[in-house]
Amino acid sequence: MFSKANISGFTLIELMIAVAIVGILASIAYPTYTDHVTRSNRTEGHRELVRIANLQEQHFIDNKSYTTDLKKLGLNASPFITENSHYSISAAVNGATFTLTAVPQGSQASRDACKNLSITHTGRKSASGTGSCWE
């Protein structure tokens, strides 16, 4: 007669349970990962705003005025696009004051709750959105 062979492996039910567990873990991990990437990209905006604010101060020392033309600060464009293209930075000047604004670009614009980041001539940092944007 026929004898039952001892076959090792996974049953369909066991495989479906494993797939469900992987799906649950992925649904938890992916939003956390994208949030981390968004916050990491935001540091590029912070860094460039502070750097350009320092360039504005140097321009003020040399020329007794701030400039809206970021090319005069030695940057390659006005508005200036950050290295990884996550932010476009522009300057607004009103007499002896300036405000630099970094506007998120691409996927950063849709994912970042902070929206526009700004820094003034006094070093005051702000954001047009919500959240802890300058931490």
Automatic annotation (TrEMBL):
PROSITE patterns: PROKAR_NTER_METHYL. GO terms for biological process: protein secretion by the type II secretion system; type IV pilus assembly. GO terms for cellular component: type II protein secretion system complex. The chain crosses the membrane at residues 12-33. Keywords: Membrane, Methylation, Transmembrane, Transmembrane helix. The keyword Transmembrane helix applies. It holds the Pfam family N_methyl. The keyword Calcium does not apply. This is Type IV pilus assembly protein PilE. It comes from Thalassotalea agarivorans.
